[in-house]
Amino acid sequence: MTAFMPLVRGIIYAAIGYAIGAGIALSIATTTGEPSTEPMIVLGFVFAVIGWLMGVGMWTTWGRGWFGKSTTMDITGGWERYLRFNVDHKVIGIQYITSLVVVFLLAGLLAMGMRYELMDAGQNVFTKTTYNTTMSLHGIMMVAVAVAAVMGGFSNYVLPLIIGAEDVAFPRINALSFWVVPPVVVLLLLSPLFGGFDTGWTAYPPLATQTPIGGLLFELAFLTFGISSILGGMNFIATIITQRAPGMTWGRLPIFAWSVLAASVISLTATQWVAYGLLMIIFERIFNMVFFSPPGGNALLYEHVFWFYSHPAVYIMILPAFGAELEIISHFARKPLFAYRWVVRAFALIVFLSFIVWAHHLFTSGMGESLHGPFMILTELISIPTGIVFLSALGTLWRSKLRLKVPLLFALGVVFNFSIGGLTGIFLADVATDIALQDTYFVVAHFHYTIMGGEIFAIFAAGYYWFPKITGRMYNETLGRIHFGLMFLFYNITFLAMFAPGTVGMNRRVAEYPPEFEFMNLITSLAAFALGLSFLPWIYNMLNSWISGPKAADNPWGAKTLEWQTTSPPPLENFDEFPVVTGDAYGYGDESVVHAKFPNSTNAVPAEGD
């Protein structure tokens, strides 16, 4: 029971904090004569988060030092260390991964409910409002998984290891960035009990300022999650710049680290814009300020602010996925990463272009027509650096002797799926076709091919690849192959089937639709149910293997990068002896190339494995 005390204490302190904040807001509202409900929720939530953080261990680890008192850096313990404020990057990575797995599965269940509703053209389970609130909750939960699963989860665990560091640059900020996430999940799960939000995950005003209290909970959750993303981006940038092992020059940096660096630049800079936008919406609700709503406001302004973040946010999701995909392909193809330097340049160009293509989301919004052409050209230009990444994967695979293990199967799935997502994105970048396809199921299919087909498949690739390192156990290869085969098949049936009704105008975000679309929706729903069932082998495989799977070798894949040159799982400070980098991380085929050496050891880093 003592293991759960930090969580219990956090909940108690959060309740006390909420009472203090709500009391202050009520006093001010009573004095001014203004409505008090939403100000009480907002200020109460702010104090509740502070109380929650202090209760789960931030006070003893960090807060006491603000007042000149001694602190304890909590980095040890058994499984109970995952239930409190712990500054070990490996613990934080596992906290992110396990939490987001739960969010992913809950969001998937919401998707099953939506597909059940859409099996036929009539109204079945949901009302129009409850369908939209379910769709909105599914959307924001899946976006949270896509943003944080690799950046918060695998990047936290792997990045310090792969660059030969002891930890991230700011361990306590790292822990803070995770522990603000549970309140986000709580708010999202509470929102349906308070009327939900039917704005979609975009929170467009003026609807976003007129929703029930559930909408306010969503806006607070989104804003808080943005704070976590900003802190994480700052930490990873500082870590890669300052914590690399001796000899790890920029030209020797593994491609996964480059992808995290690129995504972190976007995360640190772009996320602030959506935070400003959400803050203005909250101010409209509680202070009656006017930014976006009539009279006097401009809703189109919010769309510009929102998409100035949210299109770069696509690359916060997909860039680390690209990095993990290329890592896996190089190691399992036993070939140097093709066009490594061009991929690094492509990542930099994607970061730059991602900030100047946002308005292709606004082609049908009433934006000035003079802006259509420039944004169309810029959007199509971003396909060039993205194509370089795609060609790097193909070039590495070309004429190689592949070891078709489960991680590589999912990485190949990323290549296949993202090619469809990229090609269909060209239609939405073009003004004429975008006007015809806007708000149809073509957009839904394209988005899922980009994010689920690219990002989510890459998450599973990374999960299978680094599972032995994280757990010290090996999983069942046969169950992994079954999971991939079922997921790949039914995923493609589900979303390929959406292109057909979308092309002829079936609108997204509606529970009822014309009967002529019923057959394709029935196929989509049946495939979606099968897709949901395809995750059962994965759940069983991961849980059973983590508990009782065979012991993993330190380097079961025979990879050269540094995370595989320590024990599985790694010791507290990652390496018993810190390495000195001497060569390329992908120098396969040339035995003279050694990625790193340990000065007090006579053995170089091994290049081959089972």
From TrEMBL:
Superkingdom per UniProt: Bacteria
Subcellular location(s) per record: Membrane
Keyword Heme: yes
Cellular component GO terms, alphabetical: membrane
GO molecular function: cytochrome-c oxidase activity; heme binding
Record membrane topology: Multi-pass membrane protein
Keywords associated with the record: Electron transport, Heme, Iron, Membrane, Metal-binding, Respiratory chain, Transmembrane, Transmembrane helix, Transport
Domain Cytochrome oxidase subunit I profile positions: 79-582
Family note: Belongs to the heme-copper respiratory oxidase family.
The protein's role, per its UniProt record: Cytochrome c oxidase is the component of the respiratory chain that catalyzes the reduction of oxygen to water. Subunits 1-3 form the functional core of the enzyme complex. CO I is the catalytic subunit of the enzyme. Electrons originating in cytochrome c are transferred via the copper A center of subunit 2 and heme A of subunit 1 to the bimetallic center formed by heme A3 and copper B.
Protein name from the UniProt record: Cytochrome c oxidase subunit I
Species for this entry: Candidatus Lucifugimonas marina
Lineage: Bacteria, Bacillati, Chloroflexota, Dehalococcoidia, SAR202 cluster
